[in-house]
Write a structure and sequence with these properties.
The complex is a heterodimer. Chain A is an alpha+beta fold. Chain A has helices at about 30-35, 40-55, 85-110, 115, 120-125, 175-185, 190-195, 205-215, 235-245, 285, 300-305, 330-340, 355-365, 390-400, and strands spanning about 60, 70, 75-80, 150-155, 160-165, 225-230, 250, 255-260, 260-265, 270-275, 275-280, 310-315, 350, 370-375, 380-385, 405-410, 415-420, 425-435, 435-440, 445, 450-455, 470-475. Chain A has three domains: about 30-85 and about 170-200 and about 420-475, no CATH class; about 85-160 and about 200-340, Rossmann fold; about 350-410, 2-Layer Sandwich (Dna Ligase, domain 1), CATH 3.30.1490. In chain A, strand 14 (about 370-375) and strand 15 (about 380-385) form a beta hairpin. Chain B folds into two domains: about 1-150, no CATH class; about 150-315, no CATH class. The chains are: A alpha+beta, B mainly alpha.
Chain lengths: ~475, ~325
Amino acid sequence: MQSFAGYDPGDFFDELIAPDGTPRPGAQLLIDKIASLPPGDLAMRQRAAEALLLKMGITFNVYGRDEGTEKIFPFDLIPRIVPAADWAQIEAGLKQRIFALNEFLQDIYNDKKILKDKVVPEDLVLSSRTYRKECEGFTPPRRIWCHVTGTDLVRDRDGRFYVLEDNLRCPSGVSYVLENRQVLKRTFPQVFEASKVRPVDDYPNKLLEMLEYLAPDHVAKPTIGVLTPGIYNSAYFEHSFLSQQMGVELVEGQDLVVADGCVHMLTTKGLKRVDVLYRRIDDDFIDPEVFRPDSLLGVPGLIGAYKTGRIAMANAPGTGIADDKVIYAYVPKIIAYYTGEEPILPNVPTYICRDDADRACVLAHLDQLVVKAANESGGYGMLVGPHSTQAERDAFAGKIKAEPRNYMAQPTISLSRVPTIVGDRIEGRHVDLRPYVLFGREIYVLPGGLTRVALTRGSLVVNSSQGGGSKDTWVL
Amino acid sequence: MLSRVANSIYWMCRYIERAENVARFISVNLNLLLDLPSEGGKHWEPLVLITGDQEYFEEQYRQYTKEAVISFLTFDRRYFNSIVSCLAAARENARSIREIISSEMWEHLNTFYLEMADPRYHPMALQDPHKFFRIIQMRSHLFTGLMDSTMSHGEAWNFARMGMMLERADKTSRILDVKYFMLLPQADLVNTPIDNIQWTAVLKSASAFEMYRKEHHLITPRMVASFLVFDTHFPRSIRHCVNKAQVCLERIMNGAAGGAINPAEKLLGRLKADLEYTDIDDVIKQGMHEYLDNLQTRLNRIDTAVGTTFFNIKPLVSAASGQQ
């Protein structure tokens, strides 16, 4: 029997098991099912699922290794369950947050009211590496900037959800949400049905609707493309998967040209005009004429066509400023400024290193804090104080003093845990949650999301590039 | 469809066909050796000659042993026409168009490659080579079958098919060329049992032995060459492959407006007509090697023309907008 008998939820919030060892509401059916499996069965199903992922080629590339080094994104069969009440709060909180961040973007690139009112320091915004002067005075189609967002949430020991990070540029991972669900449906069909899990399969359709909404009114049947950096990008599988699911073209920079002010695809029958691009290339690389001139991934002239309204892009260039990790600290104020409401989802308390008092406090407590650089992602450029060496802390102290604007620090959160298959045993592992939000005709939050899990015992780093895996997320 | 996609699907099929043909060369040589007195490495050398990459081989492996030649042709990743390199290239191409091909095709090719790249399977190539290379050929056939039965026979399919047919025509011509070249200086061997075995092997390389027998019964060099170049119905004969490639190209062009003929259509149409109005006696008069050499050059030109007509249209576009 694959028993939970010896399972220890530990001194953390466990997503499936209450502190007294009984299943949490909604998790009973799943726990019973797992407990009823013959010995070794769960581990066997786990291996079968991994083999299936490899065969389907659902892999990502690891940077810094040989070209073409592929790994499957490790996947754990035991799902994470989010009760309806928790989800209602998350959904409302994300809608509020994304609405406010979109207002913020429109404002700082145009009227700059929030800067004039000194709610957010002007120099902080203008000095950000992701602030795009090129976008000043521009309003994107339908006045939407952040069409696709993946917001990282964590649950602390107290059971509350906090926003850890906003990802407004090219958030990835949604394909794993959809694929994980396929695997889980095959593995636990009865439990799945009986638990009344909300479906996620509608996502590609919602994404397509949103992209079509961006096309100019006079275009009845817009041509849409997913713009990918190519097969060596770590998220290439996802780009290919989404374009296939939506039935739109997957294009690389080399497939596009700007001629007569419009963007065209190079096809076997000549040029074909493109109306909307879901671009998965960062601002820096998207147009060598405007941003990095050495970029081979982008399309020369793309930004020009964009600014004259000849093509729509999701996400809009310039959104990176809103997920700058120092700007993050101001998001509660940003929400209050544009909505007049208190944030529904709180931030993790944050120290801003450009602030003298905060910085002194950070430098004194480096061994207790998590320090992050403003514009890094994927778990790079980060110091996890309690797990660091003195040498690492000294190095980070130097960096903070040299460039205080570029750093922020947060207390270490005791991330919640979910039972996870470890060999033949089940042990608790720390998780976060990345729900996906689409901003089109209205704001839509996919009921589910990517639960990333730190597979190493005790580890708090869930990034796939740093040994993290994923789980299916069941919203009831 | 996107030019890049057409390019990838065309090359995906060319590479798979190429990998299959390498397995064929090796298989047949193994069969041949069962019937011949051992003469050291002499029987493995032609396999390297066929590739035209003797220089690299001699530098890396020195001796033409069975082990060296098989490793070189099968597992050498630095040699870009080895089976594993071809499959890696086919898979990279497939990966960039996996939203275009069927998941059956992708999953099959992905598994096919992962197996070949897995060192655990490598000892089998030397321990049980007959089985090993047979498996590779069957995997390739399965891929072709999946492509025919799970993918719409639209533009993309026609590009795939055209790539496969051009590659196959080229490989059949090379099989014939090398054997002919090998046998030529040994005039006294003509019509001896050994010679017969050699020509049987040529036929078997192209899976043509049984079909040839039905058509022509006796094995003579002249008829074998005629069969492999000019037979209308045999699926690996050069004429058949060129005809099929031409049909694909016609279908690809049907969607386009206007009657202008592009360079690929011109070159392929001319080659088809020439094959139609030439027979084996003309070829022998001209010299078999010269004829095949010329044929390979023309196939290369067709490949280049397909590239400039459909895949690399960017230079044309910039030239056109430059004139405005």
